Amino acid sequence: MPRRAARFIHLLDHAIGRMGRKRRVLVELRTPVYRAVLGPVYEALEKSPDVELAFTSEYPEQIRPLVGSAHFITHRDAEWRRFDLYMNADPWAAARLRRCARRMNFFHGVAGKYNLDRPEGLPMGFEYYDRIAFINRDRMSRYLEAGLVWPGQARLIGYPKLDRLASGRIDGAAVKAELGLERGRRTVLYAPTYSPASSLHLAGEAIVRALADAGLNVIVKLHDRSLDPDPRYTAGIDWRARMRALGRDGRIRHVEGSDASPLMAAADIMVTDHSSVGFEYLVLDRPLVVFDAPDLPAAARINPEKVELLRSAATVVRKVSELEAAVATEFGNTGRLSARRRSVADHMFHEPGHATDRAVALARELLDAPPSGVPVPAAQPAPGGAS
C-alpha cells in the first residue's frame, strides 16, 4: 500500500476512534520490575475518567497475575487493536501495533549497563516513538548527540519510580514491622544485580550470612532476572530456593516484588555491586557499600564512568571478611560521604519527587494530540535486560 494511502487510513481510523469517550492506553510490562517503573504513571492516568488501561507483555505468565486477566492482552491480540497511546520502559521486545496513535518510552534504570550510555549501533528502535522520557540530563545529551533521538522527542522527566522514596512518603519503620524484623537492630538491604558475574554468584550467600552474623537485620532483594529460570541470567542456580534456605525468623528476609523502594526506606545501609537501586538509594543520603565483583563491568557492558561514579559515593569491599568492619565504619560516621551521595543523586535523577507529575502531563499531551505518522515497528532483538 502506498505510504500516503496508509497514512490516510491510519488518521481516519483514529479519527473514528476518538468519537468514543475513552482514550485507550496500552502499557507494556516486560517483567514485574516494570510495574514499579511505570506504575506511578499509569495509576495516575487511570484516575482520569476518559482513560481505559490495558496491559501486555512477552511474558504473560509473569504479568497476567499482577494486572488481572480482564486487563491483560497478548502481543498477538494487541497487534490489530486500536490504541491512543502505548507506553513502555524498554525499547526491546516491544509489541508490534498496527493501529496505535502515539507511543512513548521511559528508561528503567540509570546504571549504564549493556552499552546504554554509549548506544551507537544498538537496535533501539526509538524512531518509532513520539516521546522519549529521560531520567537525567546526562543520558538525554548522549542520545541527542548520537542522533538516536531528535530534540522534539526528548523530554527530561526524571524517574517516577523514585518519587515516593525521595519525598519521604514511605514509612520505613512500618515496612520493617510488616517484614517481622527484630526491633532495635539496624537493617541492611542486600540488592545485587543479575548476572553470573554479580556479587550474588560470587559470594551472595556468604554476604548474607556475614551481615546477619554482624548483628544486623538483613533484607535480601534480588533482581527479577535472578529469579528467572533462564540459565542466561542465573547459570542454572535456583536463587529463590537458596535465599529461602538462609532465612532466619526476625533476622533475614528474602523479599520478592517489583518495587524495592519500600525496602530501601526500611534499610539503614545498603550493600550492592553495581545496580540502579544502588544509585536510587543515594537519594536517602544513607551509607552505601559496594561489594566488588571484578568481572561484572565487562560481563554487563557497564560504562566505566558509572562504575566510578557509584563507588565515589560508597565504601568498596572486595572480601566478605571486610564487610563487618566496613558497615561499622559507616555507622560510626554516617555523614562521611553525605555531600558526595547527594551530589551523585542530583546528577542521576532529575528533580526527584515530582517526576510522576511531569510524566503524566507528557502522556496527557500525547493523548490529546492528533495521531502521528510513525511507522509500525518491526520486532527488535531483546537482551536480558538493561539499565
Throw out a few tags for this protein.
single chain, 387 residues, alpha/beta, Rossmann fold, six-stranded parallel sheet
Please provide a written account of the structure:
It contains 17 helices and 14 strands. It has 387 residues and is an alpha/beta fold. About 2% of the residues have low confidence. It has 2 domains: 174 residues, 3-Layer(aba) Sandwich (Rossmann fold), CATH 3.40.50; 180 residues, Rossmann fold, CATH 3.40.50. It is globular, with a radius of gyration of 21 Å. The chain has a 6-stranded parallel beta sheet with strand order 2-1-4-6-7-8, with helices on both faces. Strand 1, helix 2 and strand 2 form a beta-alpha-beta unit.
Produce a short descriptive summary.
The chain is α/β, with parallel strands linked by helices and about 375 residues long.
Oligomer: single chain
Question: In one word, what is the shape?
Answer: globular
Q: Which homologous superfamily in CATH is the superfamily of the largest domain?
A: CDP-glycerol glycerophosphotransferase, C-terminal domain
* Number of self-contained structural domains: 2
Query: What structural class results from the helix and strand content?
Result: alpha/beta
Strand content: 5-15%
Largest sheet: 6 strands, parallel
Tell me, rounded to a whole number, the average pLDDT. Answer: 91
